[in-house]
Write a structure and sequence with these properties.
Distance between the termini: 41 Å
Shape: globular
CATH architecture of one domain: Orthogonal Bundle
Strand content: 15-25%
Helix content: 25-40%
Radius of gyration: 24 Å
Low-confidence stretches: 1-17, 195-204, 345-415, 501-533
Strand order of the largest sheet: 1-2-3-4-6-5
Oligomer: single chain
CATH class of one domain: Mainly Alpha
Number of helices: 11
Mean pLDDT: 71
Order of helices and strands: EEEEHEEEHHEEHHHHHHHHEEEEEEEEE
Largest sheet: 6 strands, antiparallel
Structural class: alpha+beta
Number of strands: 18
CATH superfamily of one domain: Transferase(Phosphotransferase) domain 1
Length: 533
């Protein structure tokens, strides 16, 4: 290619002024941020049949690309993240090396990190102490879903990977403008087969959220992430920092030695069920904590009043209220990237405490000083954190896939794009297109209008796969009800009478797609299939 790498004349400087730039099947369009190890770009990723998607493309710095330990660590992050597929986890689309440049292509998210949301809410909302405990329960329950998916991930051969995030903190929670909550950044995650190891005496992660065994450099498992969730839960319930002090050494000592009071001792309206869940997650003896994030989630949801309605749409509305101007600014950036125009940089430089985010936004950082133990400022910090996330009960993941532009596909004339929206029940199925993984449901693709059929396949553990051909001649919304895997065949010596049937068998359908108004049909795998033009 004409431009062999993403490095400047000195070999060290990112090519911001030279963008857009081709790197394999990626077109780097805009620098989103740079940290100590890598730079992240907003990029267009070419797929099959002229399909493109926007991604956050992370590239290791050129001088570090010459150091095998850094390359191994970077590729480890990519390998680990690629195994975690869940709507509440930022997705990894691709990783590899092109002309000496190591890259990691991630889901590009339009939204804001939790602490940016907090900063806005602190300025706008009054005290809502009565509902704070239930908001906190909902927040951590949502985080538990994504982390449990990571903890239980399996490799290509079905082997357990034993992934531990090791950096769970408010900075690594992200809220999209559509109202979804994501767990970010598996850059320092631990897996059983990870190549790189933490050096003796070198701590990875944010000190105030580390589990005691992590500080002591003892073996860690997923219960270390449960402890970190407990810290976030305590701070959300009380409005106080639990362990954070003004210097790292004192913070580490606090994690290991300081007393932990019941949250209700600070906020009396906190129900005992949340007290118990929080203190159990914060148990220093590892065998006294929740064994899994899913177990913590169950305890938290028990504290939420029965019938409590927490729709994702309310968080979406809140994000639109708080970030209307910024959302418009980012949407304009996306439009210009699609059209191949130069865009102005929207994000600030990251701080020293965190590396660059995996998404298209900057991270607001935790204050160095502890939160005031009482008074309006401490409570408003809590209100901001909770109100931002309580309504994020949904599991929808948003994948930014964009139409091809003349700049990105000069070999053919531009075609009018159509939208293909895929949703499944349950959500979280992987969607595979002509060239492999496309996204995780719910997801929307923009593809060129054509009469040629494209084959898509949906897969989800515990459910029968679904395959169908879609002809993108018009906008289509497809809802697939996935069927559970068939139970094992009965023992041949046991005769089982079939249950009475009240409906016709649902076999394989040979009918082509029905016209407008006939919204349901039988899918190829025997699944009801809904479509709206």
């Amino acid at each position: 290619m004409g431009e062999p790498s993403v490095q400047g004349p000195s070999g060290e400087t990112p090519l911001g002024p030279k963008l857009p730039l081709k790197l394999g099947r990626f077109t780097l369009c805009e620098e989103l941020g740079a940290g100590g190890m890598a730079t992240v770009y907003l990029a267009r990723m070419e797929l099959a049949a002229g399909i493109e998607r926007l991604v956050a493309l992370k590239t290791i710095h050129p001088h570090l690309a010459k150091e095998p330990p850094f390359v191994d660590m970077f590729l480890d992050e990519a390998r680990i993240a690629s195994h975690v597929t869940h709507p509440n986890v930022c997705s990894t689309h691709d990783f590899g090396e092109v002309d000496g440049v190591y890259y990691l292509a991630m889901e590009y998210l339009l939204g804001e990190p939790l602490f940016d949301v907090i900063n806005r809410l602190v300025e706008r909302f009054d005290d809502i102490q009565e509902v704070l405990p239930y908001l906190a329960a909902r927040i951590i329950a949502d985080a538990c879903e994504g982390l449990h998916a990571a903890h239980t991930s399996r490799g290509p051969g079905g082997e357990r990977l034993h992934i531990v995030h090791r950096d769970v903190s408010p900075q690594n929670l992200f809220i999209t403008y559509d109202g979804s909550v994501k767990v970010l950044d598996f850059g320092i995650a631990k897996a059983a087969d990870r190549l790189t190891r933490t050096e003796t005496g070198y701590f990875k992660g944010k000190f105030a959220y580390m589990a005691p065994e992590q500080i002591k450099e003892q073996p860690v498992d997923r219960r270390a992430d449960v402890f970190a969730l407990g810290v976030v839960l305590f701070e959300a319930l009380t409005g106080r920092r639990l362990f954070r002090t003004k210097n790292p050494a004192a913070t580490l000592r606090a994690v290991l030695e300081s007393s932990i009071v019941r949250p209700s001792a600070i906020r009396p309206n906190i129900p005992s069920a949340l007290d118990e869940a929080c203190l159990k997650a914060l148990s220093r003896p590892i065998d006294q904590r929740h064994a899994t994030a899913a177990e913590l989630r169950r305890d938290l949801l028990r504290a939420v009043p029965p019938g409590d309605d927490l729709p994702e749409a309310r968080l979406k509305g809140l994000m639109e209220t708080l970030f209307a101007a910024r959302a418009e600014e980012k949407s304009e950036m996306v439009r210009r990237v699609r059209d191949g125009e130069q865009v102005e940089r929207l994000v600030t430089e990251p701080s020293e405490e965190s590396d660059i985010p995996s998404v298209g936004s900057d991270f607001a950082q935790l204050a160095d000083e502890p939160v005031a133990p009482s008074g309006r400022r401490g409570l408003r910090w809590l209100v901001g954190a909770l109100l931002a996330l309580i309504f994020a009960a949904g599991v929808g993941a948003t994948f930014a896939v964009v139409e091809p532009s003349e700049r990105a596909a000069p070999r053919r004339a531009p075609r009018v794009p159509v939208e293909l929206a895929f949703t499944t029940e349950p959500a979280g199925a992987t969607l595979h297109g002509p060239e492999g993984l496309v996204g995780v449901t719910p997801t929307t693709l923009r593809v060129p209008k054509t009469s040629a059929s494209l084959t898509f396949r949906l897969e989800l553990d515990g459910y029968a796969p679904w395959t169908d051909e879609v002809t993108p001649t018009t906008n289509q919304r497809m809802h697939v009800l996935l069927s559970p895997d068939a139970p094992p065949e009965p023992d041949p010596e046991v005769v089982q009478a079939p249950p009475p049937s009240t409906s016709r068998p649902t076999g394989r359908s040979s009918a082509r797609r029905r016209g407008r108004g006939e919204s349901r049909r039988q899918g190829r795998e025997g699944n009801p299939f809904q479509m709206w033009d």
